[in-house]
Amino acid sequence: RLRVIEVYTSVQGESSFVGLPCTFVRLAGCNLRCVWCDSTFTFKGGAHRAIDDVVAEVSALGVRLVEVTGGEPLAQRQAIPLMERLIAAGHQVLLETSGSISIERVPEAVHIILDLKPPGSGEAAKNLWSNVPLLKPKDEVKFVLASRADFEWAAQVIREHRLNERAGELLLSPVFGAVRPEDLVDWTLAERLPARVQVQLHKIIWPPDARGV
For the chain, which terminus, N or C, has the lower number of CB atoms within 10 Å? Predict the structure, then answer.
């Protein structure tokens, strides 16, 4: 059984799927405590639910694109069979994961969004670098940045690990209210980074502290 916080349909707020209708399965629990986390409500609680029940609810919502998120979804072992069942039911499945837990068992068909943690998160030491060689060309790597120092760290990681050759998209996002998007654009252009600058669409459409997105 899974500990599930919520299942709901909205639009994707980030990644290369931004703006598309998507059903989110938000699982409870996280092994990290990032300084800027906007999902602290996932750390505890959640309803214990059978995988069949969750898949049935997702399918009833009628949206093919599904994201499994958290918290940290891979902190629950049953997240793997959940994704397998969603794929078998005909869904296109995204996984948003911090990269602090191995992605080795994630089904091949799943589109992984690996959220590497920069120093400003307070959790950079938890990055599991053995995940990088496991990335597929369709996967994405995301950096949420709170400062120029975080950006410089991300640029170094991208170059040292040749992430543009391993993943299909590299995403740079400013922490809402901490880094101006226009500054992030300037830094990215100056460094000639092969990365996509993005803002979190859901923080623009809904209040920054809105739950459920």
Answer: N
